[in-house]
Structure formats: C-alpha cells, structure tokens
C-alpha cells in the first residue's frame, strides 16, 4: 500500500512538474510576443520595474482555483495572467477592450471565433456574453497551441476534452 501511495505521489509530482514547465514556457513565449508587439519608448525601457516570480506551488494553487495569477502594466498596456481549468463548453464572450492570448497546457478543445452571437447580454462594462453563436471559425486546440483573439471578436469553447488547462493573458 505504501509503495502504491509513493508511486502515485511520484506520478502526480511528475505531472505537476510537466504542467509547470509548460506554463513557464508559455509565459516566456507570450512575454516575448508582448514585448515585440508593444511600442516602447526609451524612458519606458529604463523604468525600474520589479521582477515577479511565481514558484510552482503558487502556479499549481492558482490553477486549482481558476485564479488570477497576476495583474500589472507594461508601458501603456494593462495585463492580467489568468489560470483556467475547463471541464465543459462555455459561453460566447466578446470583450470590447481586451485582447485574449490563450496558451494551451493540457487537454483539447474546439474553440470557435467569429460568427453571429445568439441572445447576447451585457455581463459587465465592455463585456458581452451569450449562450452560443452561429457560424464562426472552429479551431482544434491542443497542448502548446497559442490563439490570440483581438477585441470585439466573439469566441467560445464549444467542446472540451477534460481536463483542459490553459493560461489567458488579457491585454488592454
């Protein structure tokens, strides 16, 4: 019994370590994309920004809660890094101001962008939600894929193969 428990712990630690490696790889890729895409003045390049570090335990805990890992700013952009776990489809989302950068860590999903939203409602300022959409382009997402959704584009997880883990970087 103790051997089985130790083996299970080893497997869980290995899975957790692989997830953390993928998260940090994704954050690095996304950070490079943001740095390259954002115009930066000489004054901003020399700002005294502090380095922020999130150890494995904090990242894994954030995924367990679908929590915001960080919120900050870079130059004139404001960003959030959100951890997300999805076990089923979601609602259609339309963000008037935010770009979503999604990095897939684990699982697969059918993600639809564009199309006409059905029964739209305002869920918050500059945010629209709906139960579904018609038309749109389906994307088959799998680990290490990145998809970038500009503001005002409807998008939703139409089908998910759980467990589905992903990071969302929101940039405004």
Describe it.
The chain is of the alpha+beta class. It contains three helices and eleven strands; from the N terminus they run αααβββββββββββ. A hairpin with a 2-residue loop joins strand 1 (68-74) and strand 2 (77-86). The chain starts with a helix and ends with a strand. Residues 1-14 and 32-48 have low confidence and may be disordered.
How is this fold's topology laid out?
Layout: H1 2-37, H2 42-45, H3 56-65, E1 68-74, E2 77-86, E3 92-95, E4 99-113, E5 116-118, E6 121-124, E7 127-130, E8 132-134, E9 137-141, E10 146-149, E11 155-171
Number of strands: 11
What's the assembly state of these chains?
A: single chain
Radius of gyration: 18 Å
Arithmetic mean of pLDDT:
81
Global shape: globular
State the domain count.
Answer: 1
| Tally of contiguous helical segments | 3
Most strands sheet: 6 strands, antiparallel
Assigned CATH architecture: Sandwich
CATH topology label? Jelly Rolls
Briefly, what CATH class?
Mainly Beta
Strand content: 35-45%
Order of helices and strands: HHHEEEEEEEEEEE
Secondary-structure-based class equals alpha+beta
Helix content bin: 25-40%
Give the terminus-to-terminus CA distance. 52 Å
Low-pLDDT runs of 5+ residues are: 1-14, 32-48
Determine the CATH superfamily.
Jelly Rolls
């Amino acid at each position: 019994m103790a051997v089985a428990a130790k083996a299970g712990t080893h497997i869980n630690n290995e899975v957790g370590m692989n997830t953390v490696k993928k998260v940090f790889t994704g954050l690095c890729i996304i950070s490079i994309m943001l740095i390259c895409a954002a115009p930066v003045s000489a004054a901003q390049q020399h700002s005294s920004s502090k380095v922020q570090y999130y150890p494995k335990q904090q990242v894994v805990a954030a995924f367990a809660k679908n929590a915001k890992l960080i919120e900050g700013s870079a130059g004139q952009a404001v960003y959030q890094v959100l951890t997300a776990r999805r076990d089923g489809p979601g609602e259609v989302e339309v963000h008037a101001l935010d770009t979503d950068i999604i990095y897939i860590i684990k699982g697969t999903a059918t993600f639809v962008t564009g199309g006409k939203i059905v029964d739209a409602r305002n869920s918050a300022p500059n945010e629209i939600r709906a139960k579904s959409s018609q038309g749109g382009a389906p994307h088959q997402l799998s680990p290490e894929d990145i998809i970038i959704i500009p503001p005002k584009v409807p998008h939703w997880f139409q089908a998910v193969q759980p467990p589905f883990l992903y990071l969302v970087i929101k940039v405004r």
